[in-house]
Amino acid sequence: MSAITLEQLLSIMPLARLRAAAFLAPLNAAMVEFGITTPARQASFLSQVGHESGQLRYVRELASGQAYEGRADLGNTQRGDGVRFRGRGLLQVTGRANYAACGKALGLDLLAQPELLEQTVNACRSAGWFWQTRGLNALADAGDQERVTRRINGGVNGLAERLALYREARKVLV
């Protein structure tokens, strides 16, 4: 695997601007840690990260999280869980159950400190963890960006932008 360069990252995510430099090393480390090690996997991962994070501008969901209140499918069983465990990290880990699983895997107490996923390294590692645990390397290897999007988003929200980012990443990561 070749590490992506700052120039490549900015070509894929031009809106990242000044934030790209801070995310470059943690993104490369997370991709190695979670097996995102081929150009196809990297292009797919970076295109999804680009969409979900507004090109590295957001590590916390803009919405309040109120919509997730009482969502048992996310493990949000206690009052306030929706807001407390709203999307964080570059792929927006959401819900008490996902925070618990992610925290266990990464060695972080995310139930006590969910905001740890807003830190650059943790935002990148949580995205890699989410990617790996959802079997997304196999879908990236197959080039199935729609199925990758469905596993991340639950639907095809933002598919056009994700595909545009993917096409640019495929050109840049040869």
From TrEMBL:
InterPro entries: Cell_Wall_Dynamics_Protein, Glyco_hydro_19_cat, Lysozyme-like_dom_sf. One of its GO terms (molecular function) is hydrolase activity. It holds the Pfam family Glyco_hydro_19. Residues 50-134 form the Glycoside hydrolase family 19 catalytic domain. Keywords: Hydrolase. PANTHER family: FAMILY PROTEIN, PUTATIVE-RELATED (PTHR34408), GLYCOSYL HYDROLASE FAMILY 19 DOMAIN-CONTAINING PROTEIN HI_1415 (PTHR34408:SF1). This is Glycoside hydrolase family 19 protein.
